[in-house]
Amino acid sequence: xxxxxxxxxxxxxLVIFIPACYSPVNTVENTDKxxxxxxxxxxxxxxxxxxxxRLQIVSVDKQEITxxxxxxxxxxxxxxxxxxxxxxxxQWFNESGMEVxxxxxxxxxxxxxxxxxxxxxxxxxxxxCKDFKLMTRALD
Length: 140
Description:
The chain is α+β, with helices and mostly antiparallel strands. Helix content is 16%, strand content 40%. It has a single domain, classed as Immunoglobulin-like (Sandwich), CATH 2.60.40.3230. The protein has 2 helices and 7 strands. The relative contact order is 0.21.
């Protein structure tokens, strides 16, 4: 009987806590799109296959905004049903391919729900920035 009680507590904990890790996201959006995206041809370097399988890149878009600045938006989808936490950062480069060091090149933590489509976006720090790199990494 005592063994039964000892097994009951962990079993109840599993029943309570496992569903908390599963929270897929439902969405609704306009099917008649009027926007025009400026897609960016991109090159992907994968060093973490698990992260790449989990966070799938849907599209990479850019837009020139006021003052000659570049806005970049990368659309991702969490391909798994479980929630996930990771970190990302944008790096900016001038027309010669040299990195433009800014305070915004720090790693930023991001939490996404299972199945969620989400966006990571950034604006170049100045008009001399002509290119970018987005880096992502898993958090332990």
